[in-house]
Amino acid sequence: PTLAERDHAILWHPYTQMQTAALPIPIVRGQGAWLYAEDGTAYLDGISSWWVNLHGHAHPHIAERVAEQLRTLEHVLFAGFTHPAAVELAEKLLAILPDNQGRIFYSDNGSTAVEVALKMALQFFFNQEQPRRTIVAFRDSYHGDTFGAMAVSSRGAFTAPFAPLLFDVAFIDVPVPGREADTLAQLEAIAAQGDVAAFVFEPLLLGTAGMLTYSPAILDELIRCCHRHGILAIADEVMTGFGRTGQLFASHYLMERPDMVCLSKGLTGGTMALGVTSCTAAVYEAFLSDDRMKTFFHGHSYTANPIACAAGLASMDLLLSTDCQASLARIALTHKQFAQEITGQPGIRDVRHLGTVLAIEFAVGEHTTYFSGLRDQLYNLALARRVILRPLGNIMYLMPPYCTTDAELALLYDVLRDMHQLVLT
Ligand code: PMP
Questions:
Q1: What are phi and psi of 367, to 5 degrees?
Q2: Is 246 a pocket residue for ligand 1 (Cβ < 6 Å)?
Q3: Model ipTM?
Q4: The pTM is what?
């Protein structure tokens, strides 16, 4: 049997059982923006392998730093002990995060980074005279697939089997252009009830909902509303972090600052699973002043794994280099030019772009029909062109690694043009 057949016999992959191509594509090597299959076929990775890969595959700088760390210290429990990579990465993160962030808590992935933030917020208020239990989130958001993260995510087919066990969340509408005032009024009304602990949001760009964008001005208003009511504002920058939106963090487009930030995906440049929840010194200190416990009830076996932290440090070196910053600007500009070309054309409902993310919404059906026939057609068209893209229903998006060249971007746009033709016919 082939590798794909051996896989197919025993492995369980996420979100693909219903997909048309029954056998997975065996990938044996990666370099730059390309992934190479067992039979030698090269695939251009147009979505950075689920939005994680920043600097291209198997980058030598990250590989060397990780190998060195593996030979020096592979792991140590993070209760009562520490190590250089954890401290250095935390220092580097605090140097670039919004300047009110003062503490770093490590976990394992994006879902747990959010889970930790929610638990921190709830325990923060549990420690106070008047505990608060309500969490507010955007109705169409995606924050992960653990129970807490599912609870604050959009409710639909994905969460239906678990819905009765998910805690109640006060959902407000995404403040898409024209709806800003409604969203603010919804948050004001819920906040006035006095029980809201936290508002968790994807800043400026809701990924899984279909790369929906909204303005920094309304997010500033929402955060101001939170702060008037003593509510903790949690920015889920799992997708938007590390340059994706054109700034190091989407929060840097804001005047106001979030109280907590959740990070993962690009944190290690797409090499190792690692999550971070940062918070202000005030949040941290509230735990110290608690007479009962003085600890946060959360911790993982692999908390602050040295290899993952080393990968994070190496990725950060690359991200902050002038080459990488120039690349970010170049991709943003090229996306903008392509967006101008197709905006307003027949068959296109909307075009959205922010930094290195570009999304086209075709005027066919709704993106909520995630596993629609159209989705499969678009997916297969891309694969036939040797490009990896994953449509969100009728929405196609690009989120390439930052090393993607102009010629490679041109290929991605070509595939989008073909998709547009397919939708028109
Ligand atoms: N938050 C956001 C905004 C995300 O996009 C995702 C993943 N798509 C998550 C959280 C969950 O991250 P992970 O898949 O690493 O658990």
A1: -70, -15
A2: no
A3: 0.99
A4: 0.97
